[in-house]
Every structure is written in C-alpha cells, then in structure tokens.
Amino acid sequence: MASRLHYSSILHLLLFLSSFHTSSANLSFNFYAGSCSVAEFLIRNTVRSATSSDPTIPGKLLRLLFHDCFVQGCDASVLIQGNGTERSDPGNASLGGFSVIDRAKNAIEILCPATVSCADIVALAARDAVEAAGGPVVEIPTGRRDGKESMAANVRPNIIDTDFTLDQMIDAFSSKGLSIQDLVVLSGAHTIGASHCNAFNGRFQRDSKGNFELIDASLDNSYAETLMNKCSSSESSSLTVSNDPETSSIFDNQYYRNLETHKGLFQTDSALMEDNRTRTMVEELASDEEIFYQRWSESFVKLSMVGVRVGEDGEIRRSCSSVN
C-alpha cells in the first residue's frame, strides 16, 4: 500500500541535510539508539493509541508542530505553561494534543530519565500522526534540545493568519528557510484536522437580518452555503468544521482536489489556486498522490529542523510544560 512506504531514504535525507543551512549539523538519525532505543517506539504507540480513541488527534499534533517551529524554532517552547508564554497567547488558544505529548514524555521518563527532549517528541509525534492517518512514513533526524523561554509576544508576528495573502505567506515561510514549494506542500496538512468558525468567517458577512452572506467570490457557492449554515448558530464560536470536507480523517491529496473545485476552507487555501506561482503546483499534487507524499516527506523534514537547538544550547526538560 503506497501510504505505508518510506518516501525518503536515509541516504537521500543525509545528502539533503548536509546542504541545509540551519544548525542541524548535530541532528542525526537514530540519535537515541544508544541512550534510549525505545523512544521512537513509545512515541509512535502513544500516538496510535490516542488516535484510535480520538481521530482528531493527528490534526492537532501536526498543527502543534507548526506553531512550535514557526515561533522561536522547533524547541517545544509552545508547550510551556504560564502567564505570558506562547501557550497562553490567544493565537494558540485552540491548539490541542498536549496530553499526547505529556503521555509520551511520561512513558519515556520512566525508562530513560532526562534523555529525550520534548522538542523531539513534538516532531516525532507529528510525524507519527501523519502515518496514523494513512499518510507516508517519514524518517526524520533527532537530537533537538528544548528551549528555556517562551514569550507570548513572539506568537502573532510569526504564525500564519488564515486571511494572509500569498505574498504574506511566502514572506513568512521564507523567513524560516522554507520555499514556495514548501508552502504549497505543507499546506496539505489541511487534508486532516478541523477549525473553529471564527478562523474563516471573514469570508462572510451578516446581512440586515443577521444572516450570513458570501462576500468571497473564490469560494464554491454550495460549499459556502454549508459553512454558513454550520456557523450561523449562537454556538458557532465553539463549533468546528473539517478542514477537508471529503476525507477529513485521512492524510491524502484530497485537499488539493478540493482547491481545484474552490472548496478550500481558508482564504490562505484558496489563494494557492488563484496565483500562477502556486496553481501549477496545486494541480500537480492534486493529480498524483505519490508525488504529494514524496514532496511532503521532504518539506516536513525541513519544517522539523527550523531553528533547532543542538549540542549545549537549551536543555532536556523533565516535564514538557515547564523549564527545569
């Protein structure tokens, strides 16, 4: 079955990593082989178990990695609790999956205390979440260290808002060392997961009777009608809508086919189909799931290495929600 294949051989990734411009030189495959050989097994089992009881977990874990890496690098700073931390910022209020990370960390600490970083657990859990949802198996290097600080003020300037223009998204990704192709490919994460109505209600407006009406012409009318009906109730602030209206719990290339039929949930999704710089990429990924999986594997590795801390930089937290 194609979704279970390894799309990036270790040799391919080693060649790729050797040319990558971050501080990834101290990351390596099987980093914990000698110090905690069961680490990746425990994380994978924790993710699988959590997903079997809650199919929304993969989307939450994948989003958690994005929000961690885009703010201060992939250093698990998003996990730290407390006033004024990244986790306390309203931009991160809807994040989930923290309990899965904590369970994996607790299991590892019993066998390998003070050895495996929370940053690696977040990256590996996101990797395993894609596999659990039927996506490709990706080999990623480990050896990340945990950050010692987390500031809410760093969140808003770094995360992608759902109403960003394509140029704004390109700038944001470029600032993290990620290309336009990475932007299009990593947007494929929206093939799983769900979002609150307030994340996309800027595509509608209320009429004089208080009913929603469509103001974004890039959205399919029937799909827009479905969204407006779903989000029109007084409880809409707590309601969620699947990012992918067709195969919401399966990591496939349906997201790109949705874009071709103007059924991207966010303005940032629709923007990929409206610009010549990205439309051709969308069409290629929509037509060939194998290519999507291959490109995903490459771009995911790049994402997981943004701003990593290695060597003596940072620490290995004993608890993921607080610094040592």
From TrEMBL:
Ca(2+) 1 binds at D68, V71, G73, D75, S77, E86. Residues 1-25 form the signal peptide. Its cofactor is Ca(2+); heme b. GO terms for molecular function: heme binding; lactoperoxidase activity; metal ion binding. Residues 26-324 form the Plant heme peroxidase family profile domain. PROSITE patterns: PEROXIDASE_1, PEROXIDASE_4. InterPro entries: Haem_peroxidase (IPR002016), Peroxidase_pln (IPR000823), Peroxidases_heam-ligand_BS (IPR019793), Secretory_peroxidase (IPR033905). GO terms for biological process: hydrogen peroxide catabolic process; response to oxidative stress. It is found in: Secreted; Vacuole. GO terms for cellular component: extracellular region; vacuole. Belongs to the peroxidase family. Ascorbate peroxidase subfamily. This is peroxidase. The lineage of its organism: Eukaryota, Viridiplantae, Streptophyta, Embryophyta, Tracheophyta.
